[in-house]
Design goal:
heterodimer, A: 204 residues, Four Helix Bundle (Hemerythrin (Met), subunit A), 74% helix, B: 93 residues
Chain lengths: 204, 93
């Protein structure tokens, strides 16, 4: 006997939150991974802040040479990608797979924009012989931003996999776990940058 | 439908627009060379608010169990508290 499954009856993932009480969006495992990542970045941020407190003049002088415009542009690019990912999840909730794929495509393009801007910034730094060993500030600047850069690359791989899934109509109400899991990771990458940018590029 | 887990397109567009404006404000303060305790307090407050929007609305933790919301919001509070303590310590040097 066939059973008819309505979107309402298969709602747990991606359905209205109040229908089944509070729940985490995406896989539980990704949230433990996100917590581990946040902890690592948190330690890094604190280490930078306390190292700066002991070398205020050095940090201020070398921070002034950073390309703050590139940092701000990258913030806009990451926020835009995050917004596009939110819209992709909303489209999947509305059973609009094509729009979901399009929004994810937009997020991929803006994510690659971040990569290009960051590589340009690194190229300029290396031209000026800046390296991990050139100063305490540069050690933090390069290691912090490169650690984050690697996360953006992994995030892009995940976004591309989700884009491919969306094109095949894989995500719909009741079957959004994969999409929500990848989206949570991408937002974590954005969240970390929202602290990194003012801390490393602006506050002096 | 009493609440959508991932918000509405209109709501998230509005949040996105305010996040961009906040980013422009941060960039502007940096370009103008704003510094000092109050300047840093404003920069920290803007960054904290942006992080809270990403955590609660984009990551949809507003609809998550309280423990997860507390852990993630606790993370951003602790990180900014440590940065603030370090900044104050730097002023005393």
């Amino acid at each position: 006997m066939d059973t008819v499954t309505t979107p309402q009856s298969s709602m747990p993932a991606g359905g209205p939150a109040q229908a089944h009480g509070p729940r985490l969006a995406g896989d539980l495992a990704i949230w433990f991974f996100i917590l581990a990542e946040l902890l690592a970045f948190g330690v890094f941020f604190a280490a930078y802040a306390f190292a700066r407190a002991k070398n205020i003049e050095l940090f201020a002088a070398e921070q002034a040479a950073l390309n703050r415009n590139a940092g701000a542009l990258n913030t806009v690019l990451l926020l835009t990608a995050s917004y596009f990912v939110v819209r992709a999840v909303q489209a999947a909730e509305a059973q609009a797979s094509r729009q979901c794929a399009n929004w994810l495509g937009g997020a991929i393009v803006t994510g690659f924009g971040f990569i290009i801007v960051k590589l340009t910034e690194y190229a300029a730094a290396f031209e000026h012989n800046i390296s991990l060993s050139s100063s305490t500030f540069h050690m933090f600047y390069l290691s912090l931003t490169f650690f984050h850069f690697m996360h953006v690359i992994l995030g892009l791989v995940i976004l591309i996999a989700m884009w491919n899934g969306a094109r095949q109509g894989r995500y719909r109400p009741g079957d959004m776990n994969g999409l929500e899991t990848g989206a949570a990771y991408w937002h974590m990458v954005d969240l970390v940058w929202l602290i990194l940018f003012p801390l490393v590029y602006v506050i002096h | 439908m009493s609440a959508r887990m991932h918000g509405t397109p209109k709501g998230s567009t509005l949040l996105f627009a305010t996040l961009i404006l906040a980013t422009i404000a941060t960039w502007g303060m940096g370009s103008l060379g704003v510094t000092g305790t109050w300047g840093v307090a404003i920069l920290a407050a803007i960054s904290f608010w942006k992080g809270a929007v990403v955590i609660l609305d984009f990551m949809a933790l507003r609809h998550a169990p309280l423990l997860w919301r507390a852990i993630t919001m606790g993370w951003i509070i602790v990180v900014w508290a440590l940065i603030t303590i370090a900044y104050i310590k730097g002023l005393a040097q």
